[in-house]
């Protein structure tokens, strides 16, 4: 086991002391730093060319948005399904969607999972929530010892809403959850669902610690897709759910510092990519999604400080098709998101970089709070099954706990 409280507590405590002495922003100092490293503040807006996880202190008034997944349900190693990770200088962290495949990119950042307890789902397509249970269990195993909160829309009928999704997941993974209960912190195994009316228009979904998250409807496949805004410290990030261009986004995304919105492949490129006929590709690209020219029109009207397009698999041909479409109608600040693109946002500056991560990473260290959290009712196989242990093997004696 790697649980060694004395070693884990020291770097964070030292960082906090350093932060207090130097007067540098303290939020990052409370993060879970890799052993042997001290994160540094960014001086005079001079960011390194690449983002190396856990090496930079987030400024007290700064927001960092990391695209964990930007692709499609058909994934590639470089484009998994949708997820955005938002970190604030006050220490708060949020996930917007956690689509299938996104979890590996989150783990590659080695975050402090004790702080990631809020997921906001735009809708219940697998490319937006497919890694939800993987995230629940993975983060519970890796440092989260408080309940996980899932915020998400209702559906046209109760069984199509977020609460029903969570109940279904709990049922489907009953065996998994039961095996870990008692071995992992009790409270970390709980999911608290916050379902809200998908038709609500810019109403508050979450408000705490100076952070306000609002939602509004999106137009996509069935009722029950939404977009979100997150406002904090005079900064506004908008996470657009899958949608046809809609009037609510045009109204409520106004004033966004970073406005993300889907930017799907245009019909011809989509048809070529999937081998579909042009009618089907045109329907998908321009009726239930937003093709590049439509995305460009949205952004040309909204004029955010940075427009972020996502939701396609990038290739040289696809990139050209997307950029041609967007640039035909929008010439403002633009980032077509790729997995592990990092956006730092302050009042003065917006910096877009790529993260550099290892393919092989250790799980992050856990906090003393995680180690001490109560674990009750540990489970084991029945006597009937245990009686089948092969006598030809004797395991080594159990060391004392904590050694
Ligand atoms: Zn969708
Ligand atoms: Zn989607």
What's the number of extended β-strand segments? 18
Share in β-strands: 15-25%
CATH homologous group name: Ribonuclease Z/Hydroxyacylglutathione hydrolase-like
- The helix/strand class is alpha/beta
The ligands found in this model are: zinc ion
Largest sheet: 9 strands, mixed
Radius of gyration, in Å, reads 22 Å
Count of DSSP helices? 13
What does this structure look like?
- The structure is a single chain.
- The protein has 403 residues and is of the alpha/beta class.
- The chain has one domain: Ribonuclease Z/Hydroxyacylglutathione hydrolase-like (Metallo-beta-lactamase, Chain A, 4-Layer Sandwich), CATH 3.60.15.
- It contains 13 helices and 18 strands.
- The strands form 3 sheets. A 9-stranded mixed beta sheet has the order 2-18-17-4-5-6-7-8-9. Strands 10-11-12-13-14-15-16 form a 7-stranded mixed beta sheet.
- Strand 5 and strand 6 (93-96) form a beta hairpin.
- Helix 8 packs across helix 9 and helix 10 crosses helix 11.
- One zinc ion is lined by residues 123, 125, 220, 242.
- The site of one zinc ion has 4 residues, from loops.
């Amino acid at each position: 086991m790697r649980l060694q409280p004395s070693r884990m507590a020291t770097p964070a405590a030292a960082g906090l002391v350093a932060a207090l002495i130097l007067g540098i922003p303290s939020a990052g100092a409370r993060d879970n730093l890799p052993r042997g490293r001290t994160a540094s503040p960014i001086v005079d807006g001079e960011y390194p060319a690449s983002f190396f996880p856990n090496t930079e202190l987030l400024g007290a008034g700064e927001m960092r948005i990391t695209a964990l997944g930007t692709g499609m349900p058909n994934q590639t190693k470089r484009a998994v399904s949708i997820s955005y990770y938002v970190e604030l200088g006050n220490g708060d962290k949020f996930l917007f969607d956690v689509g299938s495949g996104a979890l590996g990119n989150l783990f590659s950042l080695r975050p402090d999972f004790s702080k990631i307890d809020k997921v906001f789902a735009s809708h219940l397509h697998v490319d937006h929530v497919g890694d939800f249970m993987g995230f629940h269990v993975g983060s519970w195993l890796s440092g989260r010892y408080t309940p996980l909160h899932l915020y998400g829309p209702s559906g046209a009928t109760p069984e199509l809403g977020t609460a029903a999704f969570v109940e279904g997941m709990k049922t489907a993974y009953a065996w998994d959850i039961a095996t870990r209960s008692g071995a992992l912190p009790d409270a970390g195994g709980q999911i608290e669902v916050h379902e809200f009316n998908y038709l609500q228009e810019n109403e508050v979904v979450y408000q705490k610690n100076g952070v306000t998250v609002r939602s509004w409807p999106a137009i996509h496949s069935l009722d029950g897709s939404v977009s979100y805004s997150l406002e904090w410290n005079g900064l506004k990030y908008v996470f657009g759910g899958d949608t046809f261009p809609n009037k609510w986004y045009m109204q409520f995304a106004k004033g966004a510092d970073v406005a993300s919105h889907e930017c799907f492949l245009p019909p011809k490129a989509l048809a070529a990519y999937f081998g579909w006929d042009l009618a089907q590709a045109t329907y998908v690209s321009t009726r239930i999604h937003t093709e590049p020219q439509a995305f460009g029109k949205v952004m040309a009207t909204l004029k955010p400080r940075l427009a972020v397009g996502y939701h396609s698999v990038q290739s040289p041909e696809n990139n050209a098709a997307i950029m041609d479409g967007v640039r035909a109608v929008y010439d403002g600040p633009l980032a077509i998101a790729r997995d592990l693109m990092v956006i730092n946002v302050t009042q003065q500056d917006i910096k877009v970089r790529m993260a550099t991560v290892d393919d092989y990473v250790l799980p992050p260290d856990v906090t003393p709070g995680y180690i001490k959290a109560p674990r009750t009712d540990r489970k084991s196989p029945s006597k009937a099954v245990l009686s089948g242990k092969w006598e030809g093997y004797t395991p080594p004696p159990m060391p004392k706990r904590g050694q």
